[in-house]
Amino acid sequence: MAYRATPNTTTKYSPFYLLHGREMPLPTNENLKAKVSQENSSHSQRLENLKAGIRSAYTLVRGANSLSHQNNKEYYDRKAKFRKFEVNDLVSLYNPAIKTGLSKKFKKIGRGRTG
Q1: Domain span including residue 16
Q2: In whole angstroms, what is the distance from residue 115 CA to residue 19 CA?
């Protein structure tokens, strides 16, 4: 329950808000029901307000995610090394250990041209 109600650092919205279009009503002894404002008594108007709120939240989340992606890429690129290979260069093949319970028999050794 705590994860669903906590705003994400990237999106600034809680998962519950992005799914339901409103903040999560936390249980208290006084009232365990979801609070609905009485100013929009018609269902169609309430539905339109809900759709508009979710649309704007999704737009903001989309922008925040792309910004976060760019920041993560810049952080990764600081330590990444550029390597350029030519045809017929000798390279090492990274072959990680086989996990317990799996067989080496059907594992592909590498890709590319052989010979």
Answers
A1: 1-20+45-80
A2: 55
